[in-house]
Amino acid sequence: YPAKGNFNPKQGTLELWARVEFDPNVPVKPDDPGRGQYNRSLFGVRFPDGDWINLYWNIDVRGLRFFLKKGQEYPLMLDSAQSWKKGELHHIAISWGDTARIFVDGKEVASRAFNGTLDKDMGSAVIEFGEGPCEFAVDEIRISDIARAPRDFERELVADEHTLLLYHLHETFQHDGGKQTRAAKIAPAARA
């Protein structure tokens, strides 16, 4: 998806439901140079110059990592270890504004003072869900233009005046492109 109109870099919230479809407790030695193959992607905003806003499951943390990459620097890296098991369903949210936060199942599990994300033009950036190895069954995605804690997340997510992107993922999907899911709310430029 195009990030322009669907992602506010100054403040916002991403919420989604994800079922763990991999073994988060796979034995890996901390010094194994191939351990990165066990990382699992959830969400990202990628820029053509390589800058990146990303949320993923990290093997070293054994949990979620929310980071910002600008050039070769990582101005934000926020981690939250989780004791997850394959097959579990979790509500995951991140928010950004004057503080970066990670929420799991409605509870704040990590935070750090940090202003916004990357102060960049969203015109050429793209939003990615499950890019690279994912192994999460993702459902109910909502991106808002304000930083907020999850609320009413145990029900189907709904659009409000702050919703930029809402995706229920209820439609039947075929990988060959025969049937595709459609967002319930998306920026007009992304519909074309």
**Rg (C-alpha, Å):** 16 Å
Strand order of the largest sheet: 8-7-6-1-10-11
Q: How would you state the average pLDDT, rounded?
A: 88
Question: Sheet with the most strands?
Answer: 6 strands, antiparallel
Classify the oligomer. single chain
How far do the termini sit from each other?
Answer: 11 Å
Order of helices and strands: EEEEEEEEEEEH
SS-based class: mainly beta
Helix residue percentage: under 10%
Inertia-based shape:
globular
Poorly predicted ranges (pLDDT <50, ≥5 residues)?
none
- β-strand percent reads 35-45%
Total strands: the figure is: 11
Number of helices, where a helix is a run of at least 4 consecutive DSSP H or I residues: 1
Task: Give an overview of the whole structure.
With 192 residues, the protein is mainly β. Strand 7 and strand 8 (107-113) form a beta hairpin. The protein has one helix spanning 188-191; strands at 12-20, 40-46, 52-58, 63-70, 73-81, 89-96, 99-104, 107-113, 126-129, 136-144, 163-167. The strands form 2 sheets. The protein has a 6-stranded antiparallel beta sheet with strand order 8-7-6-1-10-11, with no helix packed on it. The chain has a 5-stranded antiparallel beta sheet with strand order 5-4-3-2-9, with no helix packed on it. The chain is built from 1 helix and 11 strands, in the order E-E-E-E-E-E-E-E-E-E-E-H. The protein starts with 11 loop residues before the first strand and ends with a helix.
Short recap of the structure:
This protein has 192 residues and is mainly beta. The protein has one helix and eleven strands; from the N terminus they run βββββββββββα.
